TrEMBL record:
Cited PANTHER family: E3 UBIQUITIN-PROTEIN LIGASE E3D (PTHR31531:SF2), E3 UBIQUITIN-PROTEIN LIGASE E3D FAMILY MEMBER (PTHR31531)
Function: E3 ubiquitin-protein ligase which accepts ubiquitin from specific E2 ubiquitin-conjugating enzymes, and transfers it to substrates, generally promoting their degradation by the proteasome. Independently of its E3 ubiquitin-protein ligase activity, acts as an inhibitor of CPSF3 endonuclease activity by blocking CPSF3 active site.
Domain of life: Eukaryota
UniProt subunit comment: Interacts with UBE2C/UbcH10 (E2 ubiquitin-conjugating enzyme). In vitro, interacts with cyclin-B.
EC number assigned by the record: 2.3.2.26
Protein name stated in the entry: E3 ubiquitin-protein ligase E3D
InterPro entries documented for this protein: UBQ-conj_enz_E2-bd_prot
GO terms, biological process: proteasome-mediated ubiquitin-dependent protein catabolic process; protein autoubiquitination; protein monoubiquitination; protein polyubiquitination
GO molecular function: cyclin binding; ubiquitin conjugating enzyme binding; ubiquitin protein ligase activity
A GO-annotated cellular component: nucleus
Transmembrane segments: none
Catalytic class of the enzyme: transferase
Catalytic activity: S-ubiquitinyl-[E2 ubiquitin-conjugating enzyme]-L-cysteine + [acceptor protein]-L-lysine = [E2 ubiquitin-conjugating enzyme]-L-cysteine + N(6)-ubiquitinyl-[acceptor protein]-L-lysine
Length: 369
């Protein structure tokens, strides 16, 4: 009966926009909407579903702009004022900037540890793509967009410093989304196409050759095989890396753009994000909706964004744009998440000029108990 239900909460305006996606088409006479203070009851062809709005109090007789079209039911309803935001007479002004530390701890920088003897494998097909590695030092890089010519590494000897950040065969340098190793650690199971590093078994894109001839591999593309105990350290999840890329790129200013880019040979893949609302609360159906007639909606916090995907197009630079190079699988995972969020709304509410409207969920479902 119900494919999805989305309540977009606007506590400052004391309104709630409701979008209900039905599994089949209905006409305006075949659907009934009934509101109470803490629930929305939908009846379609004698089938009734009640959605409990535990975290928002509705004004039952304030329903407006009701629209039943095809397999969508959309309307707006007023909500009882939240004392946190004041009332129509007074308003409490708070800083709208997003707190970058509010992301879930599970999205922190991947921890690389001293594994001793190990090998690197393709995460897709488990093809071993490196020689046996004997790692002695694992060091963090300054930031995502560092210039290696501006840094040096002290070798604990006053007369010996390493200019340019080029790891030796016993070192790993790492960033939030990638790590860098010496090119001599490659074996014959890798294919080099221009500067792109590809697994020769499954043709998975693993990383790139840097100008200093070192090798940059993406955390989400490779596993580690520990030779000491035959265990493996698995690759990171591309969607978690997508969230991490946003966290490390955003500054929370009004009008900023976050541009995730992937360079494969001469091709440039770009996912452009324009945050509109850093603190938007939604109420949606549970991840697994039962056949019960009464369903408690779950509250999630999202960032509402405008987004679009582009290939081989030069982007005009400006002070409000931040760039982050990522693996293509990270762009794909982020784009799939955004497209799924866009489909929660009818077509009329999906686009603005040449951008789509989507939501990025930066946290798991909140506890409703």
């Amino acid at each position: 009966m119900i494919e999805s239900i989305t309540l977009e909460l606007r506590p400052r305006l004391q309104i709630c926009n409701v979008f209900i996606h039905l599994k089949k088409k209905v006409n305006s006479t075949g659907a009934t909407v009934k509101l109470s203070k803490e629930s929305i009851k939908i009846t379609i062809e004698n089938n009734t579903k009640t959605f409990l709005t535990k975290f928002v109090k509705l004004i039952p007789d304030s329903l407006s702009t009701l629209n039943v079209t095809s397999n969508w039911i959309c309307f707006r309803v007023q909500t009882i004022s939240d004392p946190v935001f004041g009332s129509f007479k007074t308003q409490i002004i708070t800083n709208p900037a997003f707190n970058v530390n509010s992301l879930n701890d599970s999205f922190k920088t991947t921890e690389l540890f001293n594994t001793g003897k190990c090998r690197i494998m393709c995460a897709c097909c488990e093809n071993i793509v490196s020689k046996n590695m004997y790692i002695k030092r694992i060091l963090p890089l300054p930031d995502m967009n560092y210039d290696s010519s501006e840094w040096f590494c002290c070798k604990h000897n006053h007369s010996n410093t390493m200019h340019n950040l080029i790891p030796s065969e016993s070192e790993i340098f790492y960033g939030p989304l990638f790590f860098i190793i010496h090119s001599n650690l490659l074996n014959h199971n890798l294919k080099i196409d221009e500067n792109v590093v590809i697994c020769n078994r499954c043709l998975q894109y693993l990383g790139k050759i840097l100008p200093d001839n070192s090798l940059k591999l993406w955390n989400c593309a490779v596993d580690y095989n520990l030779l000491s105990n035959s265990q493996s350290k698995t690759a990171t999840d591309p969607f978690n890396d997508f969230l991490l890329a946003i966290k490390t790129s955003m500054i929370g200013m009004i009008g900023e753009e976050i541009i995730l880019q992937c360079f494969i040979g001469k091709e440039i893949q770009s996912l452009i994000l324009k945050p509109m609302d850093w603190h938007l609360n939604l109420m949606i159906e549970p991840k697994e909706m039962s056949d019960d007639n009464i369903v408690t909606l779950q509250r999630i916090s999202v960032v509402k964004v405008l987004y679009k995907y582009e290939t081989d197009k030069n982007i005009i630079d400006s002070v409000n744009k931040s760039y982050c190079e990522v693996s293509f699988s990270v762009i794909r995972a982020g784009l799939e998440h955004l497209l799924a969020s866009t489909k929660r709304f009818p077509r009329l509410h999906r686009t603005v000029t040449d951008y789509y409207i989507g939501h990025i969920c930066l946290e798991n479902f909140t506890d409703n108990t």
